[in-house]
Amino acid sequence: xxxxxDAPPSGRRRRNPQATREEILAAARTVLASDGPDxxxxxxxxxLAGVNRGTAYQHFETRDDLIQATVDWVSEHLLQRIFGDxxxxxxxxxxxxxxxxxSILVDFAVENPxxxxxxxxxxxxxxxxxxxxxxxRFAQSTRDLAESEHSEEGIDAEALSVVMLAGYFLWPLWVxxxxxxxxxxEAMTRRMRREMLRLMMHGVVRAESFxxxxxxxxxxxxxxxx
Length: 226
Known about the structure:
Layout: H1 17-35, H2 42-49, H3 53-59, H4 63-83, H5 98-111, H6 113-124, H7 133-146, H8 157-174, H9 182-201, H10 211-219
Helix pairs in contact: 1-2, 2-3, 4-6, 4-7, 5-6, 5-8, 5-9, 6-8, 7-8
């Protein structure tokens, strides 16, 4: 039986602080994905999350804190999608098969161009990009592949990591993915997947080590007009 002292205050709803923080972050991602950093304000995010501004400020004192939290979310999301809980490399550039890892990155970038842009410029402009968990893991796995028997000689793994990540996240901005139809974005995704695979197969790995990927590349070649 609930007595008078056990009942919650009238008109108030108790919130789980962690759940509230996640709701605010989700709202921030929605705003950033649609309008970029220029459209972000704590007031707008609080309204979208269904909390008052005071609650939002308790979790994030400034909009820069919200942006940094979004960068951290992107890193964690990609880290889990590509590497999972496996802490050991496996001689491939990612802990998933090469083409699957390429697909995950391209799909995320094309569907979230503003989030990708924010992540890229935040990490690349930092004093120490290696502090970012996803960049550090991506660079290490690329280094593992470059040093394996499956790769060509003379690869600069750090430079290759930067080139690849810049390509993934700048491509959607170049093709204006945000303003495209679903069918157009799918076509852009296929183009980038294939080009990333082609670069891997003809410049990074030894094609004879991955015959199934070479076949996939051959099968996806654009038809030449006659």
